[in-house]
Amino acid sequence: MNTVITIGRQFGSAGHEIGEKVAAYFGIKCYDKELITRAAKESGFCEEMIENHDERPTNSFLYNLVMDTYSFGYNASSFVDMPISHKVFLAQFDTIKRIAKEGPCVIVGRCADYALAEQPNCIHLFIYADEAAKTKRVMERYQLAQGKARDLMIKKDKQRQSYYNYYSSKKWGRADSYDLCVNSSVLGVEGTVKLIAQYVEDFEKLHS
Questions:
Q1: Looking at residue 186, which CATH number applies to its domain?
Q2: How many other C-beta atoms lie within 10 A of the C-beta of residue 143?
Q3: Which structural domain, as residue segments, surrounds residue 147?
Q4: What is the pTM of this model?
Q5: How many domains does the chain have?
Q6: Which of 45, 117, 157, 158 is surrounded by the fewest CB atoms within 10 Å?
Q7: Is the Cβ–Cβ distance between 126 and 8 less than 8 Å?
Q8: Are 123 and 202 a contacting pair, CB within 8 Å?
Q9: Does residue 65 or residue 95 have the better pLDDT?
Q10: pLDDT at site 84
Q11: Which residues lie across from 125 on neighbouring strands?
């Protein structure tokens, strides 16, 4: 096994859980929130700041200006005038590339497919689901009423979409941005994991 798997996902589609189960199946690491900790360590930014910008583009000039006074690390002259949201994106971008060089793994979200576009041993997936299935999952996970769950879902997906479309040259959730798009509500979590595992194994046979 030497494939890096990236997973883009709709909120409530079980993308994170599927990523973890695929990683467990192949006995490799899964990076999601772990990316934040590592990017903080490697860039010198504090973890909270990376967390605040995680998959959320901000165009607020004032916010960037204020946050810039707290930023350390990356002191090259080209970085000095860059908005903090861009610096955080680049810190995560660098970390994703480093992680992928270390060996096979699963990376969830954060434009990982775009960061690794030049790397040959990668499979880029997108997990989506029917609205009813997503709403149910969000309601259960966050103990929310149906309307609140739906609102949160829409908000999170808008954030992810604008982040991805802002920083990458592709379109979030569009089939031609990925190698494989799977509706997790058709086969369920376990069935989707099985499908992805088969896809990865076939990919490895072809490219070994």
A1: 3.40.50.300
A2: 9
A3: 4-207
A4: 0.86
A5: 1
A6: 158
A7: yes
A8: no
A9: 95
A10: 77
A11: 7, 180
pLDDT in tens, 75-109: 545 555 677 777 888 888 899 999 999 999 999 99
Could you tell me how many residues make up the chain? 208
**What confidence category does residue 62 fall into, taking pLDDT thresholds of 50, 70 and 90?**
very low
**DSSP secondary structure, 102-147, as one string:** T--EEEESTTHHHHTTT-SSEEEEEEE--HHHHHHHHHHHHT--HH
Instruction: Return the percentage of the chain with pLDDT > 90, whole number.
Output: 61
Q: Any long-range contacts for 24-27 (C-beta under 8 Å, 24+ apart)?
A: 25/193, 25/197, 26/1, 26/104, 26/197, 26/200, 27/1
**170 HSE (CA, 13 A, CB side):** 18
DSSP per position, the chain = ---EEEEEE-TTS-HHHHHHHHHHHHT-EEESTHHHHHHHHHH---HHHHHHHTT-----HHHHHHHHTT--S---HHHHTS-HHHHHHHHHHHHHHHHHHT--EEEESTTHHHHTTT-SSEEEEEEE--HHHHHHHHHHHHT--HHHHHHHHHHHHHHHHHHHHHHSSS-TT-GGGSSEEEEHHHHHHHHHHHHHHHHHHHHHHHH-
Q: And the tokens for 133? A: 């299935």
pLDDT score recorded for residue 204: 94
Q: Given its phi and psi angles, is residue 188 left (phi above 0), alpha (psi -120 to 50 degrees) or beta?
A: left
